[in-house]
Design goal:
This protein is globular. The strands form 2 sheets. It has a 6-stranded antiparallel sheet with strand order 1-2-11-10-7-8. It has a 5-stranded antiparallel sheet with strand order 3-4-5-6-9, with helices on one face. The chain has one domain: 4-Layer Sandwich (Phosphatase 2c, domain 1), CATH 3.60.40.10. The protein is built from 7 helices and 11 strands. Helix content is 34%, strand content 28%.
């Protein structure tokens, strides 16, 4: 999916792709790029085949619905729309589980970046990630809601130990798990040339930040960069579904 927005400022070019990886037959990830509506998202489902896929697709479809109805482009309005998307999706996943108890335990991680005239609002839950590439430097804008990140923050383990930790898949926050929503919100100004990377952990578990930065620094166009990142994750073992979305302020 490749698109160019027609909004006055900022103008956004986006491209996204999802790959099941090399070890899984199904893909529980979901993504949307809708530059004309000013947003892009990545979600990674959990809770088993049907339920995981369903949770991530509920988040994607709910967000599209919310943004299709949204008006106004101020920072505050953008913030409220992002919160509404997470809130509605959380309710819908919980409602689904009530009606389908055999799907107990389903949920998803979620990254949602929305652009307004001068900046962006980012909503984050789980261990999918959002990065910003600016002036040849890659910066991680999110912090994983995971057991391993928690231990890292407390100095109990080293970054090297975190990379191959046996419990690195234990997530502390996700959509569709609790009625009360503990959502990280990040806000910032955008500059021309800013490149936002949203990805599931199928990329970051396999490819380190230095290599990601190298790809984003290259002269390749957006679709080529997305393909290259997915290829690198698969070359490193492709243990999980891999979803990559790039959005550039042009």
């Amino acid at each position: 999916m490749f698109g160019l927005s027609h909004r006055q400022t900022p103008q956004i070019a986006s491209f996204g792709k999802s790959h099941p990886g090399l070890r899984r037959s199904n893909n529980e990830d979901a993504f949307i790029v809708r530059p004309e509506l000013g947003f892009c998202l990545v979600a990674d489902g959990m809770g088993g085949a049907a339920a995981g896929e369903l949770a991530s697709s509920i988040f994607a479809e709910t967000t599209l619905e919310v943004f299709s109805r949204a008006e106004g482009q101020s920072e505050q309005e953008t913030l409220e729309v992002v919160q509404r998307a997470f809130g509605w999706a959380n309710e819908r996943i919980l409602d689904h589980v009530k009606e389908n108890p055999h799907h107990q335990g389903m949920g998803c991680t979620a990254e949602l970046v929305s652009f307004w005239d001068e900046g962006f609002v980012l909503g984050h839950m789980g261990d999918s990630r959002t990065y910003r590439f600016r002036n040849s430097q890659l910066k991680q804008l999110t912090q994983d809601h995971s057991l391993v990140q928690d231990q890292l923050n407390q100095g109990l383990i080293t970054p090297a130990e975190a990379r191959n930790h046996p419990m690195r898949n234990v997530i502390l926050r996700a959509l569709g798990v609790n009625e009360s929503l503990s959502l990280d919100l990040v806000r910032g100004k955008t500059l021309r040339g800013d490149l936002f990377l949203l990805c599931s952990d199928g990329l970051t578990d396999m490819v380190d930040d230095a290599l990601i930065q190298e790809v984003l620094s290259s002269t390749m166009v957006l679709p080529q960069k997305v393909e290259k990142l997915i290829d690198l994750a698969n070359s490193a073992g492709g243990r999980d579904n891999i979803t990559v979305v790039l959005s550039e302020v042009v």
